[in-house]
């Protein structure tokens, strides 16, 4: 080797370390999230808020529009007579309210599974999940149908007046088709929500609501068909909502998630039923809590004024609840999507943003109720006794609305993570073991009346809020993401891909 060659060799050896390729640095979603969050928390909060509102806004409008279908029916029936109004009110508030809660709860299982499947990229499973849910809700409907058929004797057994019970029984039989519309409505809705495809559902609900007003005017007012016409209008309107949503799903807008009817829908039904029942129990225990409170108030001496005052407060609370239910749907989708995609830090951040946002709304409504507690009762009643009693309950209503601006969001987190059974147990302890007995003790034993009963209800709500917040703070979100992956694999009918392209058998 001559001098020139030796020189070239040494230069090459000096250059080799500089020429060696550096290891490929792959920044994971979670690492990227942590880096961005650390640099610009405000920007990340803004982005997450936009994602929440993209789901929450149409969900709120959909909930209000569908809730208003029954409200419109009541408005037209109210002009037929007091007995007709009372009969339809009993069917809607007792029978349909119960069934609505069961169907919505059963659909929440689909919310968990579809959301996590979307996050995992298993879109082909969504249509099968929806079909499984429809099978379960339709079978459940068969078991619920006798409640409609025998509504009249059931109401008489509950000491309702003979006239109201008999008329309510007839109306309940006439609206049985609506029961089967419920069974299909919620699975289809959860299918669309999990993919953040809600605006079409919102448009359908608003258009059908306008048609429902026209239909009631034609059948009830112009043609004079009475309660039968009101029942026909409600059946048609609900089935229009359901059929329009189904047509949207099967018309080719979801080529990945809807691949047609499949016998795979009949597989893994046992586990699906278990999660569906847990979801239904979780939601129904929540709804029944307020029903039991009203029944307890009705047991007080001279309950007429107290029941009217509590009913006004509860109706106002329901309207406010429509907003928080939008956040419930939004956070459920966000948490399930991120856990399914194995992004635990993003899921946790979504929870924080949703809770803070809904809490701000709660503070706003709390201040609004306290500022108008002497005025808003006049919108609902002309009786001075009712106005005064409702005004006195303003502080309790404000506190309840504040807590209920947070609780539905926490329930949405539970649905997104698949904690339905745990929350059902928490509901039982906080509401039925603690809240209601405390309310009965304060209301009847210590003669605090409606304020004592409501104080017990508030105590139960507060305890559940604290317990759920502790549950969320203590949650291992990385473990929850792994459980979401296992849940998707358990219910999948096709192998799941690894990140490296291999297949999980």
Automatic annotation (TrEMBL):
Record carries keyword Cell inner membrane: no
GO molecular function list: antiporter activity; xenobiotic transmembrane transporter activity
Database matches in InterPro entries: MATE_euk, MATE_fam
Keyword Transmembrane found: yes
Segments traversing the membrane: 55-78, 98-121, 133-151, 200-220, 236-254, 275-298, 318-337, 349-373, 393-417, 424-446, 452-473
Compartment list: Membrane
A Pfam family of this chain: MatE
Keywords, ordered alphabetically: Membrane, Transmembrane, Transmembrane helix
GO CC terms, sorted: membrane
One of the GO biological process terms: xenobiotic detoxification by transmembrane export across the plasma membrane
Domain of life: Eukaryota
Membrane topology: Multi-pass membrane protein
Family under the similarity heading: Belongs to the multi antimicrobial extrusion (MATE) (TC 2.A.66.1) family.
Name of this protein: Protein DETOXIFICATION
Origin species: Olea europaea subsp. europaea
Lineage summary: Eukaryota, Viridiplantae, Streptophyta, Embryophyta, Tracheophyta
